[in-house]
Amino acid sequence: MSDERFILKNARHLAARYMEDILREGDVAVDATMGNGGDTAFLCKLVGETGHVYAFDVQQEALDRTAARLEEAGMRSRATLILAGHETMRDHVPVSPRVVMFNLGWLPGAAHIVTTRTETTMRAVQAALELVQPDGFVSICVYPGHEEGTRERGALDDGVYDAMAQEYLNIRKKPPLLIAVTKR
Predict the structure, then answer these.
(1) Cα–Cα nearest to 8, from 144, 138, 175
(2) Is the dihedral of CA 134, 117, 13, 91 positive or negative?
(3) Measured distance CA(31)–CA(37) in Å, rounded
(4) At 108, is the secondary structure helix, strand, or coil?
(5) What are phi and psi of 103, to 5 degrees?
(6) What is the pLDDT of residue 159?
(7) Paired residues of 84 in beta bridges
(8) Which of 94, 103, 163, 169 gets the most CB atoms within 10 Å of its CB?
(9) What is the mean pLDDT of residues 6-27?
(10) Closest Cα to residue 124, out of 51, 30, 12?
(11) What are 27-79's pLDDT values in tens digits?
């Protein structure tokens, strides 16, 4: 029996655990929402020196922060940083990734004026589900604590995929919820 205590983790931690279980050295991954580069760096570490990560954001500030973070970690060559909306994924990702990670909302530490939008998010999720390898995985962290996040949560459709939502039931602050999707 492990000495490690079981603690309920939030959506972002659960998504990371899934990524750790699925990604292997040499894989391709997509960070659909670059932000400050935390998820991009995490994915770069998991795919190793022979893998690659494609990361998207519509804000130059996000790209600059991510590039600096990767440079500092010695992993800049493992990622292609794309200044474009995640809905353009098909145009920029030339191979089928094993995973696609979404962390919806806004750029942490910046004004909440620019957020992900339901319309473009749904196009991006559809592209991710079509691009991802048959044994691949798509994680979507949704923040229903703001209006657009509530709309994004309501718009996700399971279609021909298996989709599971994990969320806290009794926290009023509306923490993120994880939607995990795999191809059937």
Answers:
(1) 175
(2) positive
(3) 9
(4) coil
(5) -130, 90
(6) 56
(7) 57
(8) 103
(9) 83
(10) 30
(11) 999 999 998 899 999 999 999 999 999 999 988 999 999 999 999 999 999 99
| 117-150 pLDDT per residue, tens | 778 888 898 899 899 998 888 888 777 666 666 6
Listing DSSP states for 138-151 in one string gives: EEEEE-TTSHHHHH
Instruction: Specify the residue for token string 């603690």.
Output: 7
Residue whose entry in the numeric block shows the structure tokens 């919806």? 104
pTM equals 0.82
- In angstroms, the CA 179 to CA 155 distance is 12
Mean residue pLDDT of the chain comes to 83
Q: Return the structure tokens found at 170.
A: 């009794």
Q: Two tokens at 1?
A: 């029996």
